[in-house]
Structures are given as structure tokens and as C-alpha cells.
């Protein structure tokens, strides 16, 4: 058994020449039921999320959770410190007043929602991922210039090298490349 036959294909990479072609191919891949795949384009394509069958991002809900945590945490902290733990009367004002709390409420809400946005985005995008098999392809370098790509990963439940390649060939791919694990 040679070294090339012992390696396993990890990604099927299909190249397309236009945005319309990759959009049509993305719809075919979505309709075929693949779940572990992505499109790579030199610029954003309007409608690609819908063509890929992607749901709305959950990042907004994560940020809302961070904001509500910051707001309620700041309120609880100031209520405890100023009204219960160490109430201090200054100038005859009550120890627990809402107007004096507004800047801290705002700041902690913004701080925790921004942390939630950054770390939520990193988690949802599975980052940092320092290496992806498509980077092994010399052809893939054109993804930032003028070519459009679809990559289907081998960990997809529907993945089969021949069937996946023929699906992409049927979507009029200009070229199809099989990227093996550990290729260098």
C-alpha cells in the first residue's frame, strides 16, 4: 500500500468562476442535505446565507445575556454596597438613589455585552482555528482574488468522496480538488 492511498480525504474543494455559479451550487449542496460545508468568496454575496440554509445568528442572544448580566450585576452590587452593607448618608440624601447609579449601570452593561460579543463570536465561529485543510490547496489562494469555492468536509454525515465530487461536478464546478489529511 503506497503512502498516497493510506491518506484519507479530509475536504472536497470545488472551484467556481462566478458568484452566480457558487450561489447555485450552494443551493444544490444545501438541498442534498450536507451540514459541514462552507463557501469561500472574495467578497460578500447577498443571499448566500439563505442559499446555504443558515439560520439567523445566535450572537444577538448571547450579547443580550451579557448585557442583562452586566445591568443586574451592577444594580445588585450598588444596592448591596450603598444601601445594605455600608449605607452612608451624604448631604441628607438617601444611601440608595437611582440617578447616581446610571453611569455605572451603563458602563457595566456595555463592558459585559462587549465581552459576550467577542467571546460568543469566537465560540460560534469555532475560532481560533490555526489551520484548515483548504489552506493546503494552491488553487484556493485565488479565493481572495477572483475565484469562488465550496468546501465540503469529510466529517459531514453524508460525505462520500465519489458522490460528493459528482454532486459538485453536476453543479458545474470549474475544478474539483480532493485534499488529503496531513497533505503538505
Which properties best describe this structure?
4-stranded antiparallel beta sheet, 184 residues, single chain, alpha+beta, 6 helices, Alpha-Beta Plaits
Shape assignment: elongated
Count of DSSP H/I helices: 6
Average pLDDT works out at 92
Low-confidence stretches: none
Share of helical residues: 40-55%
Structurally, the number of domains stands at 2
- CA-based gyration radius: 26 Å
Strand and helix order: HEHEHHHEHE
What is the spatial order of strands in the main beta sheet? 2-3-1-4
Strand content: 5-15%
CATH uppermost class of the largest domain: Alpha Beta
Protein structure class = alpha+beta
The biggest beta sheet, please?
4 strands, antiparallel
CATH topology of the largest domain: Alpha-Beta Plaits
Total E-strand runs? 4
CATH architecture annotation of the largest domain? 2-Layer Sandwich
Distance between the termini: 20 Å
Characterization of this structure:
- This protein is α+β, with helices and mostly antiparallel strands and about 180 residues long.
- It folds into two domains: about 100 residues, Alpha-Beta Plaits (2-Layer Sandwich), CATH 3.30.70; about 70 residues, no CATH class.
- About 45% of the residues lie in helices and about 15% in strands.
- It is built from six helices and four strands; from the N terminus they run αβαβαααβαβ.
- The longest helix is centred in the middle third of the chain and has 27 residues.
- The mean pLDDT is about 90.
